[in-house]
Structure formats: C-alpha cells, structure tokens
Amino acid sequence: MGRLSVQRPSQWSARWLCQVATTTCGGGAQLAGGATRRGNGVTRDQAPVRRGLAPLDERLSEPERRCAERLRDLRERIGLTSEELAERLNGEGIRVDSTRLSKFLNGREVPRREIAVQLHRLVAEREGEPVDADELARTRAAMYAAACERSPLQAREFELATAREDLCRHRARAVQELADLRKELDGERQRRQEAESALEDLDIRSREEVRVLTGERDLALERIEQLEHQIRQAGAVLRLREKDVETLDQLVCVTDAELVLWENGSPGGLAGIRTTIVHLRDADEDETAERLIEQIARGHSVRDVMRLVGEFDAMRRVYDSADVERTLARLRNPVDLFHWLSGEGHESPARSGLLTAMAAFAPAEHLVRLHKACVEHGCSELDQALRKAMVTEGRVIPETMDDVWAEDLRKGLAVLNSWDGSFMAAPAAQQTVSEAGSAPVDR
Hints:
By secondary structure, the chain is mainly alpha-helical.
C-alpha cells in the first residue's frame, strides 16, 4: 500500500486552523454558533454566533498583549459577541462600536479607564456574583501598563483617576475622624457638666467625694481642650483634602477634554475644542458634545470658556454659545464666576448673557453665594444686575434656605418684584433698590 502524502492547502489561514482546533470536542466537531455534528445529523443550541478573534500580533509589547488577553477573557466570560457587547456598553453610556471594540481586543488600542468597571459588572451579572474588586484592580493595572506603552495621554487619565480615588479615601477618613472627635468632645462636655452639677450640692458631699468630683471635672476640662485643638487641626486637614479633590477634579476634566479631542483627531486648545464641538453637533453626536462642554466648563478658566462663547457667537452658532453659558452657570464655582464678572467681564457684552444664564440655570445656593461675594466686595452694580436677571427669569430663593445671605437676597428680590416691572425709574428709586439687599440683615 502506497504511502499517503497530505499537504496543507496554502489558503488555510492560521486563524481558520485556530478555530477548528478550539471547536473540536468529544464525539463531534463543534461548529460556529453552537452547532454539533454527530453522524449525519446537526443540532443547534441557542448560543450566539461568534466569530473567533484573530491571533494577537506578535509585534505587540508584553503589556499590550496582557491587556488584550485580559479583555478577551472578560468578553468570553460575559458570553456576548463583539457586536452585542458594543451595543450593551453603549446602552450603559460608554460610546464604542464593534470596530473600536475589536481594536481593544486585538491590542491595537487601549480602552478608556471607565470601560473596566462596566465589563466587570457584566461579568458579575452573568456569573451571579458581586464585582470582584481584586479582579477589577488587575484589569485596570493591565490597561494602565498598556497605556504607558501606547498612549501617554490615557496613562495620565489612569494616574489622575487613581490619585483621585486615593484622595477621596483620605477625605472620607478625615470626615470620620472629625466626627469621632466631635462625638468624644460631646461626651467629655457631658462628663464635665455632670461633675459640676454634683459639686454644686456641697452640703451632702463628703470631702472625699468633692475631691473625686473635682478631679473628674479637671480631667474633663483638660481633655476638652485637647479635643478642641485636635478638631481645629482635623477641620483644617479636611478643608485641604476638599481643595485637593477640587483641584484634581479640574485636572481630570482637562485631561478628559483632551482625550475627546484626541479621539476625534482635533488639535488641542480652544480652536480644537470649537472645531470638535461643531463636528460632533453636525454628526448628531450631541451626547459627546455635551460631555466635552461639561469638561471644559469644569476644568478650564472662566476667561477661556467665555472666549469660546464669543467664538461661537461670531460663527452665529447661537445654540452652542448659549449651551456653553448654561453649562458654565450650572456647574462652575460661583466665586470663579464672580471674579470674571466683576473683573475681566465688567465691560464685556457677554456679561449680561452669563448673568441671564446664571439667573435661569444656576442652583439657588450658587446665586446666594454670588450675592454674598458682591456684597463683601462692594460690587453693588453687579449685585443689582443679578437681582434684575433673577426677577426677569422668575427665580426665587426657597424658604428652606434660611441663612442670613439667602434672606438678604430674598429681601432684595421682593423690592424689585413689588415695583411696576419697569427698570426705567427715577434715580432716587433706583438708589433705593440698589441699597436694598446690599448688606445682610441684622445678625
């Protein structure tokens, strides 16, 4: 019997062979989509049709390879195709299509940090278990290592997010420590009060009882002094923690904005932001445009954001300019807005637009804080303009806000509302309105 010679057809790809090798099992060959051939019959289960992933490129660095393998493992555990997984992620607010997802799974791109949490949530949902914090940390570590190799901008995103998480943990610890100190202080004050009350009844107290009670009172007083000192320090530390988190939040916002620009192929700076927003609007990518506007409103200086408003006005993109103003009024620290309104924006035509946006969209507590800043810095004209805008927009300060500055602003608004609605009054009347609400009520 002649020797049988078998040659591998040249058109068989390594990918096809890999699929055959991984789908062959037991008594039959496992076909795509879960079909199993046994003899002459074929049965199919309900598993989705999956196309096998291509082998990883040998040119990938070791961190990139580990990241891709980690993501592939998660997709396999979730049990969805790339198309289904991309659709599911989009439903959870993470914008990614199947093509982009395939690049992540093949190691050609590194995904944003936010995707890791959602992937592990889907795994936990499929396996009926809570999210494993250690596994999530390993996934993030693999993604960060790959980002360091491929994308320094994404690596910065990971570093800032990790630093923010650490700061938030420290802040939470500082809050708890401050609460514990205050609780102990209340206990020591109660102890001192009880000792002093007992000492007042000297007629029925023996000399020894007086000595003991006096010692307890003195110890309580000493401990109270120590606790008050510790509470002052703990409060200062907490304020610094809050400032650290606020500063880091601004850095995170700026980085996120740069990532959006990079993903859309736009240059950095205001020109890149303007171009990207226009492109996203015209492509009906409104959610991404809104996200970018929020990031610049939080992370960039008020001066730069208002310059962007001016550029949109010059382009006659009225909706975009108004949207930026609304977002700035809604999200930005009112003290930052006050410094621009009272300084660089004092003679700017954009000031009335920003004041109108604040009157209509800023939280009530922000309006009260802006009013307070106006009074403290003697900016009565700006304060009056704010109150006029609030009356025009029909804004009120809720009665639930009962601090002195909220009451003062309510008083000023009441004076304007009692007027005939025309701001073209006599100078004396204008002076009366200007003075009303210009100083806090008697405290």
